[in-house]
Amino acid sequence: QIQLVESGGGLVQSGWSLNLSCVASGFTSGNYGMRWYRQAPGKERELVVATSNTGDTMKLADSVKGRFTFSRDNAKNTAYLQMNNLKPDDTGVYYCSQLSYWGQGTQVTVSS
């Protein structure tokens, strides 16, 4: 059974950091590109970062450039989204997606 599970979200203050994880099961995550999305309250889901099957960043939202970094540990079948200098506008539910599968999301709340 293919599954993606995000974790690492939480409530933080502006300027703090969080490192989100996306653990894949049922397939070899490192063989495929990955996307992180987020959805803020009342807004549409937006793409945060898209990576190739080799882990190279293909697209990064302008609003997170210089603050968010993607990485992966293929031995753990896990991908990460390191988020630094968080801002209130980063608040939302963060989802990882590979192939046609989605995780359940992890909530990130940044207070000012």
Short synopsis of the structure:
The protein is mainly β and 112 residues long. It has strands at residues 3-7, 10-13, 18-25, 34-39, 46-51, 57-60, 68-73, 78-83, 92-98, 101-102, 106-111.
Structure write-up:
- The mean pLDDT is 95.
- Helix content is 0%, strand content 54%.
- The chain is built from no helices and eleven strands.
- It has 112 residues and is mainly β.
- The protein is globular.
- The chain starts with a strand and ends with a strand.
- The strands form two sheets. Strands 2, 4, 5, 6, 9, 10 and 11 form a seven-stranded mixed β-sheet that branches. The chain has a four-stranded antiparallel β-sheet with strand order 1-3-8-7, with no helix packed on it.
Provide the fold topology.
Elements: E1 3-7, E2 10-13, E3 18-25, E4 34-39, E5 46-51, E6 57-60, E7 68-73, E8 78-83, E9 92-98, E10 101-102, E11 106-111
Parallel strand pairs: 2-11
Antiparallel strand pairs: 1-3, 3-8, 4-5, 4-9, 5-6, 7-8, 9-10, 9-11
